[in-house]
Amino acid sequence: MTAPLPFTERLTRRTLALNTRLCLGLDPRADAYSGPTGSSAELRAHTLEMLNACAELVACVKPQLAFYEALGLAGMELLEEVCEVARRLELPIILDAKRGDIGSTAAAYAGAWLSGRHAGAALTVNPFLGFETLAPFVEVARQNGGAVFVLVKTSNPGQADLQGGGVSERIAAELTRLGAQEQAGTGLSSTGLSSTGLSSIGAVVGATHPQELAEWRARLPHAPLLLPGLGAQGAKPGDLAGAFLPGGTGAVVSASRGVQYAEGLDVSAAVQAARGFRDGLNAALERAKQD
Known about the structure:
By secondary structure, the protein is of the alpha/beta class. The chain has one domain: TIM Barrel. It is about 45% helix and about 15% strand. α5 runs parallel beside α6 (about 135-145).
């Protein structure tokens, strides 16, 4: 059986082929739907229509697991359908679940969300319980050609309560150490190494910290970066060039509400919003190249 192409390889190829660094957040909010056919049917139809309509404008898709869990069994069935359609569209999938735990529980989370039909190719992970908790997630991700995105500096204002005082820097240092092990083929299984030079161990760094992005890029030279916060949280495409590697790779910027609900449930408005974010990011990189 042919090994799956590593996540970072697929992400980089799609970024360059379609000239897009945008990540589509798909967060179906039940209170947004009240059509005559019933909110559940409308929610499903709109979510899948969004995915198909925006696919050629984005590098990857990021379902936020909380919104699917909130819908119960129907939500988990929709998540599987979203993942199935995304795979058919050759869209890399990042599940935004922020899982993190110890021992066998971490292994169970890793198996659930990084393998199987409702799994993504990548998963966001919370390192708060200690660095040892990353090992099961990294191992399962590598075995499946996937990736993990570890919380380093999140986009919310309250992040400073716990992420200040050098905590984010310590996490970044550990991710860099693990990434160097991977590049050297030591430590945890190195299955699924990418020819791009990017590690399977990525970092979440909020797009709401534009003045810090170049520093985080330098601290995490081999890590793919996931930058949430574009649109509804206030981040602007023109401020984010510092997160990227030369050639405009190595990072994706996520927009959720700012695309999916740009003007209520108007899919054409969502497509226009996605195109605007994509073009804004590309313009910022072009300006940075010329400076």
